[in-house]
Every structure is written in C-alpha cells, then in structure tokens.
Amino acid sequence: MVKKRRRIAMLYPFSALLARMKYITRWSLMHSTRAESLSEHTCDTALLAHLLCLIAKHYTGTPCRPEVVAVAALYHDAPEIITGDMPTPVKYHSPALRDAYKALETESVRSMAALLPAELAAELTPCMDGSVLTAEEHRLLKAADRLSALIKCTEEQRSGNHEFDAALTQQRAALLAMHCPEADWFLEHCLPCYTQNLDELTKP
Asked: What is the pTM of this model?
C-alpha cells in the first residue's frame, strides 16, 4: 500500500505581522496617561476617514469613495510594523531625514507585500502605499490621521497631562492649514463632544 505524501501548505505571514500593530506604541517620546497602540490609532483613523467621506458626500460635495478610503486607512500605517513609529519631530527634522524615512516606508511596503501571494499583494500594495486614492481622497485620509492625533492630545490634556499642550496646538494648526472643509465641519460639530463625560454624551 502506497502512503499518500502529506501536502505542506505554503505559509504567508502578512496577517500575523499586521496583528503585531497592537505592540507598537505611539507618542513614544512623550509621557502619556494612557498608551496608544498603532492598532488603536489605525482603527480610529479608519472610522474618522469614513465619516469625513460621508461628510464630503452629504455636505461639501468633494468626490470620494468612502469604503475605499476606509480600507486604505486601515493599511496606511502598516509600514510602521517594520520601521516602528518614528516621532514626528524626528521624522520632519530635516529634508534629508524626511526623504530617508519615505524611502524606508517604500521598502517596508515592498517587504510586507512579499509576504503574500502575488495576486493578493497586487491588490493590497495600493492600499498600503496610498496609490489607490485620488488626491481628494488622500487629503481626507490625511485629515483623519491628523484628527486622530488631535483627539489623542485633547484626551491627554483633559486628563491633566500638559505634556501634550504644544502637540495639541501644533496638530490643530496643521489641520486648519489643510483647508479641508470636511475636517472643519468635524471640528465644529464633533470635536467638542470629546471633552464631555459619559452622562453628557448619552443625555437625550
């Protein structure tokens, strides 16, 4: 009787590597009252990006694809699994550092895509490098990314942590400088709610 040779499945560690986003801590150079993981930031950014797209759809008329932007947001910081979360003051300290980090991100995307079958890599690479997005959609995703940071700063300040005072001012200024009407709508109608307590948030 001839024994059947056991088939060895090809393994692709892409998803397992993505799952490690929860071990990467953001704001690593600053004292935080509560640590924020890259996984948490990614989820928050995706939710905010989707909402900004809906604001665009219903109020400002900016053409966009909410579902595509939300998916791109889920992968927008995936390269940091390899590079780590480099603090913004370091990343943008000089043009040379900025360009070097950009090249590192590009290589990180390539390395992560290599952990998938070619067909899946071709689908996911545009989400990781942002090339799936139009200019308007990229602006909305960037605004959502900044909003996530602004909300973190707001929460830290509300907890009595003045370590984030300057960062809050910088993030708000950077967001306003984008001249993004969808983000402006969020700042007016949604951001103030982040300073409310649970009773205020759920009050009829």
From this structure: 0.89
